[in-house]
Write a structure and sequence with these properties.
The chain is mainly α. It contains 3 helices and no strands. The longest helix is centred in the first third of the chain and has 15 residues, at about 1-15. It comes from Cryobacterium frigoriphilum. This is Cardiolipin synthase N-terminal domain-containing protein. It is a multi-pass membrane protein.
C-alpha cells in the first residue's frame, strides 16, 4: 500500500515539475512505472 502511494505521489510530482522538459518527464514516468519499487525512490532522491 505504501509503495502504491509513493508511486502515485511520484507521478503527480513529475507531472507538476516545471523544470522538466517533456522528454525528461516521459523518461521519468517510464522509470517510475517500469520499476515500481525503485522508481519512486529514485525520483524522490535524484529527480526532485
Amino acid at each position: 500500500m505504501v509503495m502504491l502511494v509513493a508511486l502515485v505521489v511520484a507521478l503527480v510530482q513529475i507531472r507538476r515539475a516545471p523544470s522538466l522538459s517533456s522528454t525528461a518527464r516521459a523518461i521519468w514516468v517510464l522509470i517510475v512505472l517500469f520499476t515500481p519499487i525503485a522508481g519512486p525512490v529514485i525520483w524522490f532522491l535524484v529527480g526532485r
